[in-house]
Design goal:
It comes from Dethiosulfatarculus sandiegensis. The protein has one domain (about 5-255): 3-Layer(aba) Sandwich (Rossmann fold), CATH 3.40.50.300. It is about 35% helix and about 30% strand. It is built from 9 helices and 12 strands. It has a 6-stranded mixed β-sheet with strand order 6-7-8-3-9-10, with helices on both faces. Strands 2-1-4-5 form a 4-stranded antiparallel β-sheet, covered by helices on one side. Strands 11-12 form a two-stranded antiparallel ribbon.
Length: about 260
């Protein structure tokens, strides 16, 4: 499965928010959208899932325009994971993950759906908390449940909006490692909006750096996350050095003059 955008653009009212977005994404890869607040990361994710309808251009899944897909068929191919869901959702973890089976449900939950939810819970190491309530979980646990719900859709493309936001360091790494494992084991396309450049540098196979609604640079982390790009896009002077594995590490120094 491939995910391709051609000349994608979106406006809120008369304000252009995205323009001329060109990407070609293949399975088994984690793609990180980088850029400061207001650069268009979350808007791009929502356009890829048609939560927002692009004003121009195309989103193609396996060369098929997403606009031609029925809602159920789209949901079976693409799943969107928001930054967070309401903490007041009084559903069990099992029920929350079962919501991901909606594209497959008719009038009742079938045994196949229950088996799939149990399989996803086991895969995500959530089986022991299946009967706990979502609103009683920690931030990191809730994030894992949202990812599990997306996986229960059976989608090959996962769009994640700031999946590590508001998590402590341990859970940030746990979620990043989990996503890395999932993309390899299930040959997924993962598209993440991330603020943390060091997480992007460490885990991304491909980085798309957005600036003022367009693509400023894209490529490997080493190609994109350099001092000049960070200075122009973020307005920050930074020291960038290479780790032993060849991936960059970013140390912000001061606002750029």
């Amino acid at each position: 499965m491939t995910l391709v955008t051609h000349n994608l653009g979106f406006s809120y009212g008369g304000k252009q928010v995205l323009s001329q977005i060109e990407m070609e994404l293949s399975p088994g890869r984690m793609v990180c959208l980088a850029g400061p607040n207001g650069s268009g990361k979350s808007t791009l994710l929502r356009c890829l899932d048609r939560i927002l309808r692009p004003k121009q251009g195309q989103v193609l899944i396996d060369n098929q325009d997403i606009k031609s897909l029925a809602p159920r068929e789209q949901a079976r191919r693409v799943a969107y994971v928001p930054q967070s869901a309401s903490q007041n959702l009084h559903f069990t973890v099992f029920e929350a993950v079962m919501m991901g089976r909606k594209p497959f449900l008719d009038f009742r939950v079938k045994e196949d759906d229950r088996r799939e939810v149990h399989r996803v819970l086991a895969m995500m190491n959530l089986k022991e908390m299946a009967d706990r309530f979502y609103d009683e979980l920690s931030g990191g646990e809730r994030q894992k449940v949202l990812i599990a719900r997306a996986l229960a859709q059976g989608s090959q493309i996962l769009l994640l909006d700031e999946p590590t936001s508001n998590l402590d360091l341990r859970y940030q790494l746990e979620v990043a490692e989990l996503l890395t494992r999932l993309k390899k084991e299930h040959n997924l396309i993962l598209v993440l909006a991330l603020h943390d450049l060091n997480l992007a540098a460490r885990y991304a196979d491909h980085v798309v750096m957005l600036h003022q609604g367009g693509i400023f640079a894209q490529g490997s982390a080493a190609e994109v996350l350099n001092r000049e790009n960070i200075r122009v896009v973020y307005g920050v002077e930074a020291r960038v050095y290479m780790e032993e594995d060849g991936r960059p590490a970013v140390k912000p120094l001061r606002p750029a003059a």
